[in-house]
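U., I forgot to send this yesterday:
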Amino acid sequence: MEDFSGADLIADALAQMEVEHVFAIVSIHNMPILDAINRLGKTKIVDVRHEQAGTHAADGYARASGKLGVMIASTGPGTSNTVTGLYEAQYGSSRVLVITGQAETAFYGKGLAYVHEAEKQVPMLASVCRRVESPRSPSQLGPALQSVLSDMYTGRGAPGALEIPIDIQYAGNQAMTVTLPNNAQFVPDDKGLDQVIDALAQARRRILLVGGGVIAAGAHAEVQALAEQLQIPVLTTVDGRGVMPEDHPLCIGNYYNSAGMYKAIADADLTLAIGTKFAVGVDGQFAAQTPPGKLVHIDIDSNMIGRTHQAQVGLAADARMALLGINQRLPELQANDAQFSDKILHAGEGIRQAMRDRLGSDWPQVMDCIREKLPRKSVFVRDQTISAYNWGNQQFPIMEPRTSINPTSGAIGPGFPMSMGAAIASQRSTDAKTLVIHGDGGFMFHATELATCAQYQVPLIICVFNDSGYGVLRYLQQNRFGRINETDLGKVAFAQMAESMGVPGERVASVDAFAQALDNALAATGPYLIDVDMEHFAPMEISVMPKSKN
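Result:
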């Protein structure tokens, strides 16, 4: 093909991957790539206002769609801004690709202060990516891209990065055919499946713990089939939410780490854990919370099996393929002890109600209003905020896979840009908008992306729960030190801020006003912001983390 360049190779490869949107900030060091994408016309570019937000948006895009999330940045300062987004993607096992420029090869590494040169950019990216490549000639570009993609799609998902010197973007090249690994090495072996089946056969008081790896594998139907056939109660991690509809009678939801639930499941004789890392919380929370009974741990990453808790049976395999193998032999197995399963399900209802009672008189109504008005297929995103900790991460029912997103790393701030990416990825109609719940402190990290939402009419409802500060940290400080430090921020008029950037919004100070505002937001054709003035709502009992014993 005449005039086919390195930039064209990138644009064509993204089209082959069926990447419908990429996030970008234009620079002299990536202009050829953006031009090639627009000339090809198969991928749309979303111009974000900051590279960190764009990388978070690519992450939200990947989690909501299951496709590759892409951020195109400039070398040097632009790329350094992507690192926080890549950190979150790495934590969340999310396939996010950062494509960036670099000084032309004739000047790269010469120490000549070439504009935006970043000689240590590759090791910087390698600190938050599993694979980083930097071609030094046009012929190396295609293989470099292929090696990054192959790594990202082998086993557990991970972010990757490709650094392309500007002269290689302009230089002539040839189209490549993108191939993805078949992951044959993650097919469960017969011996491993036999051990899992034997363990299941010897147990009658089983629980099923499901993490984000099951969502990533697309194994939700297989989990439900297993649970229904054997009448096993299903607990999830926060990233595993949506693997079964949370109104399903066997789905307890994200209550595994609840003290009450841990007590209720203590006499289980088997825990079947699939696609979870058994993440440890602040102050070592949950590290000592040993899964009851025999632990059967299935994960695509063999390094995670037995890392937090010793597994009596471990199987390194793709979750869906492992479950298919197990489900083929379900007729050999007896169902769960009915009395045990009923006890666990009843305990789940009791814990759910007790947590609801601690929310006060207003917040349960706010939560119910959102669930009633928001379609089941809408994506529900949370930032790290009091509303997420106290009801968004557990109490709010999730009905479908890939409709629940939160910052896995525990970071404050990614929620808004992640929800923007999720809304763009889902391409859903106005009546199924994405909704994000956010604290005011974290929202200010990326508030400028309101302009992006307005520019592209992103179908997103932004609920800012405004307590004039870092509410979670304020609570922790008061609980641990008896005083607060640097967590009061003052009250911002977020609706006016949004309107100044082209996003309609309103401030609400009651449950009824919130319900009307949500109707207005759902009726709007694009984004809408609701500033929830928490000062005027009945307080909830906050319970985030226990006081440190250290």
